[in-house]
Amino acid sequence: MSKSFFTKTNLLTASAKRLYLSKNCSSKPVETPPTPQPVNHAEIHRRLHPPNNFERRMLVWTGRYKTLEDVPQIVPVDSIEKARNKIRIKVANWMILASFVACIFVSISGKRALERGESVTKMNEDWHKEMNKSKV
Question: Which parts pass through the membrane (predicted)?
């Protein structure tokens, strides 16, 4: 490449630098923003919520308050969320227990039906026989 190419690019970059500096740099002094006042962050992030009747009952069921009358008119959202999570876990545990009991009951009743000679295939055959007889 020729020397003229390098000198032209150097000139372009130098002129681009001057243009950038003239647009973005000013001779005005920079003003500093005022210092912020100290703030209690716990108060800012603490959201309050008026609980409805169901949320009041959840707060009592989880032991957060003794009675429905003890629940204040405005409660932090965090306490409602904690109560909701505890209720959700309790319901899930009870559903697991109910499923386990139902499985045991179904297996015992299936074994008893097998001892009596009942099966799904036999019931299906009987049903088809009745249907074929009714068609004729």
Answer: 91-110
Radius of gyration of the chain (CA): 39
| 3 state SS of 64 | coil
Give me the amino acid identity at 67: T
Q: Is the pTM of this model over 0.85?
A: no
CB 74 within 8 A of CB 46: no
Question: How many whole angstroms separate alpha carbon 87 and alpha carbon 58?
Answer: 7
Collapsing DSSP states into helix, strand and coil, what is residue 65? Answer: coil
Q: pLDDT value at position 86? A: 95
Distance, in Å, from the CA atom of 52 to the CA atom of 112, rounded to the nearest integer, reads: 49
